[in-house]
Write a structure and sequence with these properties.
Blueprint lengths: L1 H25 L29 E14 L5 E4 L10 E4 L10 E12 L6 E18 L5 E2 L2 E2 L2 E4 L11 E22 L4 E23 L10 E24 L2 E22 L14 E25 L4 E24 L7 E21 L1
Antiparallel strand pairs: 1-4, 1-15, 2-3, 2-8, 4-5, 5-9, 6-7, 9-10, 10-11, 11-12, 12-13, 13-14, 14-15
Protein backbone atom coordinates (compact mmCIF):
# COMPACT_ATOMS: atom_id res chain seq x y z
CA UNK A 1 0.00 0.00 0.00
CA UNK A 2 2.78 2.40 0.95
CA UNK A 3 4.71 1.49 -2.21
CA UNK A 4 1.64 2.16 -4.35
CA UNK A 5 1.19 5.61 -2.73
CA UNK A 6 4.83 6.58 -3.33
CA UNK A 7 4.66 5.45 -6.97
CA UNK A 8 1.53 7.55 -7.51
CA UNK A 9 3.27 10.66 -6.11
CA UNK A 10 6.23 10.13 -8.48
CA UNK A 11 3.96 9.85 -11.53
CA UNK A 12 2.10 13.05 -10.56
CA UNK A 13 5.37 14.97 -10.09
CA UNK A 14 6.70 13.85 -13.48
CA UNK A 15 3.48 14.82 -15.25
CA UNK A 16 3.50 18.23 -13.56
CA UNK A 17 7.10 18.89 -14.65
CA UNK A 18 6.28 17.94 -18.24
CA UNK A 19 3.23 20.20 -18.28
CA UNK A 20 5.24 23.11 -16.86
CA UNK A 21 7.88 22.76 -19.53
CA UNK A 22 5.23 22.68 -22.24
CA UNK A 23 3.48 25.70 -20.75
CA UNK A 24 6.76 27.61 -20.83
CA UNK A 25 7.11 26.75 -24.47
CA UNK A 26 3.61 27.97 -25.22
CA UNK A 27 4.66 31.51 -24.21
CA UNK A 28 8.35 31.60 -24.98
CA UNK A 29 10.61 34.49 -24.07
CA UNK A 30 12.82 33.80 -27.10
CA UNK A 31 11.89 30.64 -29.02
CA UNK A 32 11.13 26.97 -28.60
CA UNK A 33 12.79 25.47 -31.64
CA UNK A 34 14.71 22.26 -31.26
CA UNK A 35 18.46 22.93 -30.93
CA UNK A 36 20.46 22.11 -34.03
CA UNK A 37 22.93 19.22 -33.96
CA UNK A 38 26.01 19.99 -31.97
CA UNK A 39 28.08 21.09 -30.27
CA UNK A 40 30.81 21.10 -32.91
CA UNK A 41 33.74 21.20 -30.49
CA UNK A 42 36.25 23.64 -31.98
CA UNK A 43 34.34 23.92 -35.24
CA UNK A 44 31.50 26.39 -34.73
CA UNK A 45 30.54 29.78 -36.16
CA UNK A 46 31.07 32.99 -34.22
CA UNK A 47 27.32 33.59 -33.71
CA UNK A 48 26.72 30.17 -32.10
CA UNK A 49 25.35 31.88 -28.96
CA UNK A 50 22.53 33.59 -30.90
CA UNK A 51 19.17 32.21 -29.73
CA UNK A 52 17.24 30.47 -32.55
CA UNK A 53 20.04 31.23 -34.95
CA UNK A 54 19.17 31.21 -38.66
CA UNK A 55 22.91 31.08 -39.47
CA UNK A 56 22.53 33.93 -41.97
CA UNK A 57 24.26 37.32 -42.19
CA UNK A 58 24.47 40.37 -44.47
CA UNK A 59 26.94 43.27 -44.50
CA UNK A 60 27.80 46.50 -46.28
CA UNK A 61 31.13 48.34 -46.33
CA UNK A 62 32.24 51.81 -47.26
CA UNK A 63 35.70 52.02 -48.86
CA UNK A 64 38.21 54.84 -49.22
CA UNK A 65 41.21 53.58 -51.21
CA UNK A 66 44.30 55.16 -52.71
CA UNK A 67 44.73 53.66 -56.18
CA UNK A 68 48.23 53.62 -57.69
CA UNK A 69 49.75 52.13 -60.82
CA UNK A 70 53.28 51.88 -62.16
CA UNK A 71 54.25 52.81 -65.70
CA UNK A 72 52.02 55.87 -66.13
CA UNK A 73 54.77 58.47 -66.64
CA UNK A 74 53.46 60.72 -69.39
CA UNK A 75 56.12 63.42 -69.91
CA UNK A 76 59.44 64.82 -68.72
CA UNK A 77 60.44 68.43 -68.17
CA UNK A 78 63.84 69.25 -69.64
CA UNK A 79 65.38 72.40 -68.17
CA UNK A 80 68.28 72.73 -70.62
CA UNK A 81 66.18 73.30 -73.75
CA UNK A 82 65.78 71.40 -77.01
CA UNK A 83 69.25 72.04 -78.38
CA UNK A 84 71.15 70.05 -75.75
CA UNK A 85 71.18 66.52 -74.42
CA UNK A 86 68.70 65.83 -71.64
CA UNK A 87 70.67 66.68 -68.49
CA UNK A 88 68.25 67.73 -65.76
CA UNK A 89 64.54 68.19 -65.16
CA UNK A 90 61.57 66.34 -63.71
CA UNK A 91 59.59 63.23 -64.62
CA UNK A 92 55.82 63.78 -64.76
CA UNK A 93 53.81 60.99 -63.16
CA UNK A 94 51.04 60.54 -60.61
CA UNK A 95 53.48 59.36 -57.96
CA UNK A 96 55.69 62.47 -57.90
CA UNK A 97 54.03 63.35 -54.60
CA UNK A 98 52.24 60.82 -52.43
CA UNK A 99 49.49 63.38 -51.83
CA UNK A 100 48.62 63.18 -55.54
CA UNK A 101 47.16 59.71 -54.96
CA UNK A 102 43.71 60.77 -53.82
CA UNK A 103 41.39 58.53 -51.83
CA UNK A 104 38.85 56.95 -54.17
CA UNK A 105 35.29 55.98 -53.10
CA UNK A 106 34.03 52.41 -53.17
CA UNK A 107 31.55 49.94 -51.70
CA UNK A 108 31.49 46.26 -50.77
CA UNK A 109 28.32 44.23 -50.23
CA UNK A 110 28.10 40.65 -49.05
CA UNK A 111 25.96 37.90 -47.59
CA UNK A 112 26.73 34.54 -46.09
CA UNK A 113 25.48 31.54 -44.18
CA UNK A 114 26.72 28.88 -41.78
CA UNK A 115 25.62 25.44 -42.93
CA UNK A 116 24.14 22.97 -40.43
CA UNK A 117 26.65 20.34 -41.44
CA UNK A 118 29.72 20.91 -39.28
CA UNK A 119 29.21 24.71 -39.43
CA UNK A 120 30.74 25.22 -42.89
CA UNK A 121 30.61 28.84 -44.03
CA UNK A 122 29.46 30.12 -47.44
CA UNK A 123 30.06 33.77 -48.36
CA UNK A 124 29.72 35.90 -51.49
CA UNK A 125 30.66 39.56 -51.94
CA UNK A 126 30.94 42.29 -54.55
CA UNK A 127 33.59 45.04 -54.39
CA UNK A 128 33.39 48.23 -56.45
CA UNK A 129 35.84 51.15 -56.54
CA UNK A 130 35.72 54.20 -58.79
CA UNK A 131 39.17 55.61 -59.65
CA UNK A 132 39.92 59.02 -61.09
CA UNK A 133 43.15 61.03 -61.01
CA UNK A 134 44.48 64.14 -62.74
CA UNK A 135 48.03 65.47 -63.10
CA UNK A 136 49.66 68.22 -65.15
CA UNK A 137 53.16 69.60 -65.72
CA UNK A 138 54.26 72.99 -67.07
CA UNK A 139 57.58 74.14 -68.45
CA UNK A 140 58.59 77.24 -66.44
CA UNK A 141 59.72 80.38 -68.19
CA UNK A 142 63.51 80.18 -67.86
CA UNK A 143 64.26 82.42 -70.83
CA UNK A 144 65.62 81.44 -74.24
CA UNK A 145 68.48 79.11 -75.14
CA UNK A 146 69.62 79.21 -78.75
CA UNK A 147 66.50 81.10 -79.70
CA UNK A 148 64.25 78.45 -78.13
CA UNK A 149 62.70 78.07 -74.65
CA UNK A 150 65.27 76.77 -72.18
CA UNK A 151 62.63 74.65 -70.46
CA UNK A 152 60.31 72.32 -72.41
CA UNK A 153 58.10 69.27 -71.83
CA UNK A 154 59.01 66.08 -73.72
CA UNK A 155 55.91 63.92 -74.54
CA UNK A 156 56.02 60.19 -73.76
CA UNK A 157 52.79 59.05 -75.46
CA UNK A 158 52.53 60.21 -79.03
CA UNK A 159 53.27 58.26 -82.19
CA UNK A 160 54.31 60.70 -84.92
CA UNK A 161 54.55 63.62 -82.51
CA UNK A 162 58.02 65.00 -83.29
CA UNK A 163 57.79 68.16 -81.20
CA UNK A 164 58.34 69.35 -77.67
CA UNK A 165 55.58 71.10 -75.75
CA UNK A 166 55.16 73.58 -72.91
CA UNK A 167 52.38 71.75 -71.04
CA UNK A 168 51.23 68.16 -70.60
CA UNK A 169 48.15 66.83 -68.77
CA UNK A 170 47.19 63.25 -67.96
CA UNK A 171 43.82 61.90 -66.74
CA UNK A 172 43.31 58.39 -65.34
CA UNK A 173 39.84 56.88 -64.92
CA UNK A 174 39.10 53.30 -63.89
CA UNK A 175 36.25 51.11 -62.70
CA UNK A 176 37.16 48.21 -60.38
CA UNK A 177 34.66 45.34 -59.93
CA UNK A 178 35.38 42.05 -58.14
CA UNK A 179 32.90 39.26 -57.33
CA UNK A 180 33.94 36.57 -54.82
CA UNK A 181 32.38 33.22 -53.85
CA UNK A 182 33.97 31.28 -51.01
CA UNK A 183 33.43 28.18 -48.87
CA UNK A 184 35.22 28.13 -45.54
CA UNK A 185 35.70 26.14 -42.34
CA UNK A 186 35.65 28.11 -39.07
CA UNK A 187 37.70 26.92 -36.10
CA UNK A 188 38.34 28.05 -32.55
CA UNK A 189 42.03 27.38 -32.00
CA UNK A 190 41.51 28.45 -28.38
CA UNK A 191 38.94 30.41 -26.40
CA UNK A 192 40.53 33.65 -27.68
CA UNK A 193 41.67 32.83 -31.24
CA UNK A 194 39.41 31.98 -34.18
CA UNK A 195 40.35 31.29 -37.77
CA UNK A 196 38.52 30.68 -41.03
CA UNK A 197 40.31 28.87 -43.85
CA UNK A 198 38.45 29.46 -47.10
CA UNK A 199 38.69 28.79 -50.83
CA UNK A 200 36.50 29.71 -53.76
CA UNK A 201 36.16 31.52 -57.08
CA UNK A 202 36.82 35.12 -58.13
CA UNK A 203 35.56 37.13 -61.11
CA UNK A 204 37.07 40.53 -61.89
CA UNK A 205 36.45 43.41 -64.33
CA UNK A 206 38.98 46.25 -64.28
CA UNK A 207 38.41 48.85 -66.99
CA UNK A 208 40.92 51.71 -67.29
CA UNK A 209 41.12 54.78 -69.49
CA UNK A 210 44.29 56.89 -69.70
CA UNK A 211 44.42 60.10 -71.77
CA UNK A 212 47.19 62.67 -72.28
CA UNK A 213 46.89 66.15 -73.73
CA UNK A 214 50.00 67.92 -74.98
CA UNK A 215 49.49 71.64 -75.42
CA UNK A 216 51.52 74.51 -76.93
CA UNK A 217 53.60 72.43 -79.34
CA UNK A 218 56.86 73.98 -80.52
CA UNK A 219 58.18 73.97 -84.09
CA UNK A 220 54.79 72.99 -85.54
CA UNK A 221 51.58 74.56 -86.74
CA UNK A 222 49.50 71.81 -85.14
CA UNK A 223 47.44 72.29 -82.01
CA UNK A 224 48.09 70.01 -79.06
CA UNK A 225 47.01 66.38 -79.72
CA UNK A 226 45.16 64.11 -77.27
CA UNK A 227 46.15 60.47 -76.85
CA UNK A 228 43.54 57.97 -75.56
CA UNK A 229 44.35 54.55 -74.17
CA UNK A 230 41.89 51.87 -72.97
CA UNK A 231 43.18 49.01 -70.82
CA UNK A 232 40.27 46.62 -70.15
CA UNK A 233 40.69 43.36 -68.22
CA UNK A 234 38.33 40.60 -67.18
CA UNK A 235 39.16 37.26 -65.67
CA UNK A 236 37.98 34.28 -63.64
CA UNK A 237 39.95 31.98 -61.37
CA UNK A 238 40.49 30.51 -57.93
CA UNK A 239 41.05 32.20 -54.57
CA UNK A 240 42.28 30.96 -51.20
CA UNK A 241 42.68 32.77 -47.90
CA UNK A 242 42.85 32.75 -44.11
CA UNK A 243 40.88 35.03 -41.75
CA UNK A 244 41.84 35.26 -38.08
CA UNK A 245 40.13 36.86 -35.05
CA UNK A 246 41.89 37.61 -31.78
CA UNK A 247 39.26 38.10 -29.05
CA UNK A 248 40.03 40.89 -26.59
CA UNK A 249 36.83 40.85 -24.52
CA UNK A 250 33.48 42.64 -24.09
CA UNK A 251 32.70 42.12 -27.78
CA UNK A 252 36.00 43.58 -29.05
CA UNK A 253 38.49 41.70 -31.21
CA UNK A 254 41.46 42.27 -33.48
CA UNK A 255 41.59 40.58 -36.88
CA UNK A 256 44.09 39.93 -39.66
CA UNK A 257 43.14 38.47 -43.04
CA UNK A 258 45.16 37.43 -46.06
CA UNK A 259 44.12 35.96 -49.42
CA UNK A 260 45.54 35.30 -52.88
CA UNK A 261 44.04 34.48 -56.25
CA UNK A 262 45.11 33.51 -59.74
CA UNK A 263 42.82 34.48 -62.61
CA UNK A 264 42.79 33.43 -66.22
CA UNK A 265 42.02 36.68 -67.97
CA UNK A 266 41.82 38.64 -71.19
CA UNK A 267 42.99 42.16 -72.02
CA UNK A 268 41.55 44.48 -74.63
CA UNK A 269 44.04 47.26 -75.44
CA UNK A 270 43.01 50.27 -77.54
CA UNK A 271 45.12 53.35 -78.26
CA UNK A 272 44.64 56.28 -80.62
CA UNK A 273 45.42 59.95 -81.13
CA UNK A 274 42.52 62.22 -81.94
CA UNK A 275 42.80 63.71 -85.47
CA UNK A 276 44.54 67.05 -85.28
CA UNK A 277 44.33 69.49 -88.21
CA UNK A 278 46.81 72.29 -88.78
CA UNK A 279 45.99 75.80 -89.87
CA UNK A 280 47.07 74.94 -93.42
CA UNK A 281 44.66 72.01 -93.61
CA UNK A 282 47.26 69.27 -93.12
CA UNK A 283 46.59 66.47 -90.64
CA UNK A 284 49.05 65.15 -88.07
CA UNK A 285 50.20 61.55 -88.34
CA UNK A 286 47.49 59.87 -86.23
CA UNK A 287 47.26 56.26 -85.19
CA UNK A 288 44.56 53.85 -83.99
CA UNK A 289 45.67 50.42 -82.74
CA UNK A 290 43.96 47.53 -80.95
CA UNK A 291 45.13 44.31 -79.36
CA UNK A 292 43.54 41.29 -77.62
CA UNK A 293 45.74 39.25 -75.32
CA UNK A 294 45.37 36.43 -72.78
CA UNK A 295 47.34 36.42 -69.54
CA UNK A 296 47.24 34.75 -66.12
CA UNK A 297 46.79 37.45 -63.49
CA UNK A 298 47.90 36.97 -59.84
CA UNK A 299 46.44 39.01 -57.00
CA UNK A 300 47.28 39.47 -53.31
CA UNK A 301 45.20 41.04 -50.51
CA UNK A 302 45.73 41.78 -46.80
CA UNK A 303 43.58 43.47 -44.14
CA UNK A 304 44.14 44.40 -40.49
CA UNK A 305 41.62 45.95 -38.14
CA UNK A 306 39.39 46.11 -35.07
CA UNK A 307 35.79 44.85 -34.67
CA UNK A 308 33.02 45.08 -32.07
CA UNK A 309 29.92 42.85 -31.69
CA UNK A 310 26.75 43.14 -29.62
CA UNK A 311 23.57 41.03 -29.24
CA UNK A 312 20.11 42.56 -29.12
CA UNK A 313 16.38 41.61 -29.05
CA UNK A 314 16.76 38.79 -26.52
CA UNK A 315 19.94 37.55 -28.19
CA UNK A 316 18.11 36.73 -31.41
CA UNK A 317 20.33 39.02 -33.51
CA UNK A 318 23.89 40.27 -33.50
CA UNK A 319 25.21 43.51 -34.91
CA UNK A 320 28.90 44.08 -35.57
CA UNK A 321 31.01 47.02 -36.67
CA UNK A 322 34.56 46.69 -37.96
CA UNK A 323 37.19 49.03 -39.33
CA UNK A 324 40.20 47.86 -41.32
CA UNK A 325 43.17 49.02 -43.33
CA UNK A 326 43.53 46.99 -46.53
CA UNK A 327 46.23 46.32 -49.12
CA UNK A 328 45.37 45.05 -52.63
CA UNK A 329 47.91 44.23 -55.35
CA UNK A 330 47.20 43.27 -58.97
CA UNK A 331 50.33 42.38 -60.92
CA UNK A 332 51.02 43.62 -64.49
CA UNK A 333 47.64 45.25 -64.95
CA UNK A 334 48.79 48.08 -67.22
CA UNK A 335 49.66 46.89 -70.74
CA UNK A 336 49.46 50.04 -72.86
CA UNK A 337 52.19 50.71 -75.42
CA UNK A 338 54.25 53.85 -74.90
CA UNK A 339 55.42 55.68 -78.04
CA UNK A 340 58.11 58.17 -77.09
CA UNK A 341 58.33 60.98 -79.64
CA UNK A 342 61.32 60.78 -81.91
CA UNK A 343 60.51 60.16 -85.57
CA UNK A 344 57.42 60.52 -87.68
CA UNK A 345 57.58 56.88 -88.76
CA UNK A 346 57.93 54.58 -85.75
CA UNK A 347 59.51 55.94 -82.57
CA UNK A 348 60.66 54.07 -79.49
CA UNK A 349 57.94 51.54 -78.63
CA UNK A 350 57.72 49.81 -75.22
CA UNK A 351 54.97 48.11 -73.23
CA UNK A 352 54.39 50.20 -70.14
CA UNK A 353 53.67 47.37 -67.72
CA UNK A 354 52.61 48.32 -64.21
CA UNK A 355 51.12 46.84 -61.03
CA UNK A 356 47.78 48.18 -59.88
CA UNK A 357 47.78 48.67 -56.11
CA UNK A 358 45.15 49.95 -53.71
CA UNK A 359 45.37 50.61 -50.02
CA UNK A 360 43.07 52.40 -47.64
CA UNK A 361 40.26 52.18 -45.12
CA UNK A 362 37.11 50.10 -44.95
CA UNK A 363 34.21 50.33 -42.50
CA UNK A 364 31.73 47.41 -42.28
CA UNK A 365 28.28 47.09 -40.70
CA UNK A 366 27.05 43.49 -40.38
CA UNK A 367 23.85 41.87 -39.13
CA UNK A 368 23.81 38.20 -38.00
CA UNK A 369 20.48 36.42 -37.68
Amino acid sequence: MRLTFLASLGMIAAATAHASAKATCEQPTVCCEEPKPGPFAFSFPPERDIACSQNFYVYAEGLAFQAKQDGMEFAARADQGTTQTFLRGELAAFDNDRHNWKYQPGMRFGLGSYLNYDAWNFNCSWTWVHITNYETIHAPDLGLLGGKPSSVVVPFWGLGLNADTLTATCVWNASYNVLDFQLGKPYHLSHAVKCLLHAGARLAWINQHLSQHYGNLLNTVFSGPIQHGDNHFWGIGGRIGLDTDWLVGKGWSLFANVSSSMLSGNFLIKQKIEPTVATNGAEISNFDIQRHMHQNMPNLEMAFGLSWKQHFLNNRYQISLQGAYEFIEWFDQLNLRKFIAGALTYPSDIVSRGNLTMNGFSLRLQLDM
